[in-house]
Write a structure and sequence with these properties.
The protein has 280 residues and is α+β, with helices and mostly antiparallel strands. The chain contains six helices and 14 strands. The strands form four sheets. Strands 4, 5, 6, 7, 8, 9 and 10 form a seven-stranded mixed β-sheet that branches. GO terms for molecular function: metal ion binding; UDP-sugar diphosphatase activity.
Length: 280
C-alpha cells in the first residue's frame, strides 16, 4: 500500500484581489507544498473562489405531466458569450460594444435553485423556500426527495449542490412566483413536455433553442427519464432495465434522424404511458 501523500506548508492570501466586497464569492490564493509521483517536493499556488453551497430541484407537475424549469437572465453568461465571440477575443471588457448585443444572450434555462445562504436552514428547507419564491408552489418537506449531492466546479470553487426531486400540482399553488424582486430576480416558469425532455437527452447537448443550460439540468432530466417507466401501473416499483433509454427513444422516434417524424398519435400515446420517476 502506498503511503498517504500530504499537502504541507499551507498558507492563504485572502485579500490579494483587494478588499472583500462580495457577499457571494471570496477569491483567495492558496500556497502549498506536495510530493509528485516521483516523490519530489513541488511548491504550488492555486487561485480559489470560496462560494456558498447551493440547492436545486427537478419539479414535475403531475396534472400537466410536464417538468417545471425556470428561465432567467444571467449576467455572467451574457458576458462570457459575448467576450468569446471572434470579434471580441482580443479586446478588453471596456473595449466591447455591449449595447449592440441582445439581452437574450444571457438567458438561461435552469432548475429551480438557490444558494444556501439562510442561517439555520437545512438543504431541504432551503429548496422548499426556493420552490415557493421562484415557482409559487408550497410543498411539505416530506414531498421533497434527495437525488444526489455533487461538486459543481472542481477547478476553482468546489462548492456542493444538493439536487432534489418534487412533484406538485395546482392545489399547491400559493403565489405567482417569479423570484424576489428586491434581489433583482425576474424569473419565468417554463413547462417542458416529456417529449422535449427526451429530445434534449437524445441530442446530447446542453442548449435548447439557443438558450444556455447548465450541466445540472441535463443530469436531472437524464435521471428523470431513467427513473421513469413506460407503464400505467403505478404500483410497479421496478427500476428501468439497462437499455430502457433506447426503448423510450424507439417509442417516440426520438433518434436524431427520426424524432421530427414522430406522428401525433405516437406522441399522444407516449404521453399517456409515461409515469413520473419512482422515489430514489
Amino acid at each position: 500500500m502506498c503511503p498517504t501523500k500530504k499537502i504541507t506548508n499551507l498558507s492563504f492570501d485572502e485579500h490579494f484581489f483587494g478588499p472583500q466586497v462580495s457577499a457571494f464569492i471570496q477569491p483567495v490564493r492558496m500556497h502549498f507544498h506536495r510530493l509528485n509521483a516521483a516523490d519530489e517536493l513541488i511548491k504550488q499556488s492555486w487561485d480559489i473562489s470560496l462560494q456558498q453551497d447551493s440547492v436545486a430541484v427537478l419539479l414535475y407537475h403531475t396534472s400537466r405531466k410536464q417538468i417545471i424549469l425556470v428561465k432567467q437572465f444571467r449576467p455572467a453568461v451574457f458576458v462570457q458569450r459575448i467576450r468569446t465571440k471572434p470579434e471580441n477575443r482580443d479586446k478588453l471588457l471596456s473595449g466591447i460594444e455591449w449595447a449592440k448585443y441582445p439581452k437574450e444572450l444571457g438567458d438561461t434555462l435552469e432548475l429551480c435553485a438557490g444558494l444556501m445562504d439562510k442561517k439555520g436552514k437545512s438543504p431541504v428547507e432551503t429548496i422548499r423556500d426556493e420552490i415557493l419564491e421562484e415557482c409559487g408552489y408550497t410543498v411539505e418537506l416530506e414531498r421533497i426527495q434527495l437525488i444526489q449531492k455533487y461538486v459543481i466546479s472542481v477547478g476553482i470553487s468546489s462548492a456542493s449542490e444538493h439536487l432534489f426531486y418534487c412533484e406538485v400540482d395546482e392545489s399547491m399553488k400559493l403565489i405567482k412566483g417569479g423570484g424576489l424582486a428586491n434581489e433583482g430576480e425576474e424569473i419565468e416558469k417554463v413547462f417542458l413536455d416529456i417529449l422535449e425532455a427526451v429530445k434534449m437527452v437524445a441530442d446530447g447537448h446542453f442548449s435548447s433553442g439557443g438558450i444556455s443550460c447548465p450541466p445540472s439540468l441535463f443530469y436531472a432530466i437524464s435521471w428523470f427519464l431513467h427513473r421513469g417507466h413506460l407503464s400505467n401501473n403505478v404500483a410497479n416499483k421496478s427500476i428501468p432495465k439497462k437499455g430502457q433509454a433506447k426503448l423510450v427513444r424507439r417509442k417516440i422516434g426520438a433518434k436524431k434522424s427520426s424524432f421530427k417524424k414522430a406522428t401525433g398519435a405516437e406522441k399522444k400515446s407516449f404521453s399517456k404511458k409515461w409515469t413520473p420517476p419512482l422515489a430514489p
